[in-house]
Write a structure and sequence with these properties.
heterodimer; A: 155 residues; alpha+beta; Aldehyde Oxidoreductase, domain 3; five-stranded antiparallel β-sheet; four-stranded mixed β-sheet; 3 helices; 27% helix; 35% strand; disordered C terminus; B: 77 residues; Ubiquitin-like (UB roll); five-stranded mixed β-sheet; globular; ThiS/MoaD-like (chain B); Mopterin_synth/thiamin_S_b (chain B)
Chain lengths: 155, 77
């Protein structure tokens, strides 16, 4: 079973959840990241996600290992989609099972924040009047010149 | 030889997905400088580097056959 995947087709959320089912678990949390229409008032038509796939899979697996070390008894599965995604489409599904519920919430939150730090996946936003690669993990800054400006990275 | 990969806006700026480059013996910092000059890529110091699919520091020395990927700030999730 592949616990960490990059998918070109729509993600079946239940199949990701099923991977973390375990008798020791008292909780499963599922994070579903979806494509939002409005960002700071600007209307997105669609997104294109791109991954450095072999490394992205490795880094997703690394996040899984970090979680299993930090929250004993946890089990993690993550699938991130690439390609063209429309508004409301599912971009990422993270499922975490743990013996107790508090850990399942915390560990799942940790996973999405780490994805935004270390997994080589990029999104390009397409608007009515143009398109840009989104350049930082907080989704707040695009680089009109195609490059980060001074001060963008510390956020 | 070494394969050098570009992604996202770097690929758009460079105009290619990858290039063959003789980088063995050079540090990541050396390669960054050479590549950014050759392809006119600016603010390259904000880009992370991976050697064989693992993040590498600027002082790491590249070996023959290594695959180098330049990783702009990521925006997955």
């Amino acid at each position: 079973m592949k616990f960490f995947e990059i998918a070109k087709d729509p993600i079946n959320t239940q199949s990701v959840i099923d991977k973390v089912i375990q008798r020791e678990a008292g909780a499963i949390t599922t994070f579903i990241g979806t494509v939002r229409e409005l960002t700071h008032g600007k209307k997105t038509l669609y997104l294109v996600y791109e991954a450095y796939e072999p490394m992205a899979v490795k880094k997703l697996a690394q996040i899984g290992t970090e979680i299993e070390e930090r929250w004993p008894g946890s089990k993690v599965a993550i699938t991130h989609r690439v390609g063209k995604l429309d508004i409301t489409d599912i971009a990422v599904v993270i499922a975490v099972s743990t013996p107790h519920r508090a850990d399942a919430y915390e560990a799942n939150r940790y996973a999405i924040e780490r994805i935004k730090e270390i997994v080589p996946i990029w999104k390009k936003e397409h608007w009515e009047d143009g398109q840009e690669w989104i350049g930082n993990q907080l989704e707040t800054v695009a680089y009109p010149s195609g490059k980060p400006e001074e001060g963008d990275l510390g956020e | 030889m070494n394969k050098v990969l570009f992604f996202a806006h770097l690929r758009d700026s460079a105009g290619v997905e990858s290039v063959e480059f003789a980088a063995s013996g050079k540090t990541v910092a050396d390669l960054k400088e050479l590549i950014s000059e050759q392809f006119g890529l600016q603010n390259f110091d904000t880009v992370m580097t991976a050697i064989n699919e693992e993040f590498a520091t600027d002082d790491e020395v590249i070996q023959e056959g290594d695959t180098i990927a330049f990783i702009p700030p990521v925006s997955g999730g």
